[in-house]
Amino acid sequence: MNEASWEDAYRASYPQVYRGLVALGARPDEAEDALHDAFVRQLEGAEISSATGWLFVVALRRWRRRRWRDRIFRPLIGTPRAAELAPEVRIDLFDALSKLTRRQREVLVARYVVGLSQDETARALGIARGTVAATATQAARALRVHLEEP
Amino acid sequence: MNDEMEIWTVRAFDDASARVRLPPPERWVPTEVEREHAAPVLAAATIAVLLALGVIVWRGFGDRLVPASTPKPTASGLLLVPGASEDSTWGGVYEHSLGATVLRPTWLPFTVEKTNSSLLTGGRFINYGVGYVTNDYKPLLIFLAESLDQTPSQLAPGEHATDVTVRGHDARLITAPDGRPRVIWTENDVRYTVQAVSSAISAGDLLRIVEGLAAVVSPSGATR
């Protein structure tokens, strides 16, 4: 994929991948930086079959790495988390999502925020297609329970 | 998933996603300048981290740096690496600093034993940390720098802040409940923090350290 076509594909996928990262708990600045890093990563020559799936999984890894770094330094510099920073952008569904397992969160976000198919989700997250369907069902049920709790 | 659950899930996520405000489109793609610099720097930083993983001094900052709920480390995520010497630590940070001014101490209230560093650069940010530890990895002092688009630090419960001037710039001297001080100020479009991790370093020492900082000007770690 050349630079121009990659930029088009990147721009087309940006909104849902950005929202996906925020749904998974990234602060807005972290989501932006992760997407920038993923954009640059492709320019270094990464092979891509599905732009959205690739962008989601690479940005997700970049964000996780940054979050790990922040966890190392947070006790020293006191970086607040997203919820502390911007209560106005807190969304109940995403709060409830944080109560699920990591795999459940990522499957639901990949399917229903990023908009990946079951096959794309399976490839992006490195799990079997059947696992995607089963995890999504189980996770959606759990999410609904969390949201409907008084 | 049955139809009713599928519809509920789709609607719930659509509604929630629609409430996430996107950055303006002009910010979606990194600028040309950043692109030119970021790729080699990211590659170099990644290689440096991977090479250093075998000798990580994770225990270098002990309980000061490990959060209460221990996250699972990944090979690419652990960035505290030891320097062969104080010079090489600062030189290594300088080499990958994307042109940001790297400030190194010229005076310290202790004899230098070991140093660690952490470096993360990306599309539009730099973040580095250099730590001084004893030979048995007791943490003493840490130097942090980050680009201004990153979230500034906040006061933790029980901390108090005093406005001071360092190096001709407005700064905050923050003291933790246990008395350990840190100084935060902005200079050269970079937000710097110097934090005493050891209680043996006083606020006076810390301010003297900050006043003595000098810019690193070569990969050997030399200052001007």
Topology overview:
The complex is a heterodimer of chains A (150) and B (224).
Chain A: H1 3-23, H2 28-43, H3 51-77, H4 82-85, H5 92-97, H6 102-112, H7 118-125, H8 129-148
Helix pairs in contact in A: 1-2, 1-3, 2-3, 3-7, 6-8, 7-8
Chain B: H1 3-18, H2 32-52, H3 62-65, E1 81-82, H4 86-95, E2 103-104, E3 114-121, E4 126-133, E5 139-147, E6 160-166, E7 169-175, E8 181-187, E9 190-196, H5 203-211, E10 214-215
Compact overview of the structure:
Chain A has 150 residues and is mainly α. Chain A has 8 helices and no strands. Chain A has one domain (3-148): Up-down Bundle (Butyryl-CoA Dehydrogenase, subunit A, domain 3), CATH 1.20.140.
Characterise the protein shown here.
The complex is a heterodimer of chains A (150) and B (224). The N and C termini of chain A lie far apart (50 Å). Chain A has helices at residues 3-23, 28-43, 51-77, 82-85, 92-97, 102-112, 118-125, 129-148. With 150 residues, chain A is an all-alpha fold. Chain A is built from 8 helices and no strands. Chain A has one domain: Butyryl-CoA Dehydrogenase, subunit A, domain 3 (Up-down Bundle). In chain B, strand 3 and strand 4 (126-133) form a beta hairpin. With 224 residues, chain B is an alpha+beta fold. An 8-stranded antiparallel beta sheet of chain B has the order 1-3-4-5-9-8-7-6. At the A-B interface, helix 1, helix 2, helix 3, helix 5 and helix 8 of A face helix 1 and helix 2 of B.
Q: Could you tell me how far the N terminus lies from the C terminus of chain B, measured between alpha carbons in angstroms?
A: 66 Å
- The CATH class of chain A, by name, is Mainly Alpha
Number of helices of chain A: 8
Query: What's the shape of chain A?
Result: globular
Q: What does the largest sheet of chain B look like?
A: 8 strands, antiparallel
CATH architecture of chain A: Up-down Bundle
CATH topology of chain A: Butyryl-CoA Dehydrogenase, subunit A, domain 3
Largest sheet of chain A: none
Query: Multimeric state of these chains?
Result: heterodimer
For the termini of chain A, the CA-CA separation is: 50 Å
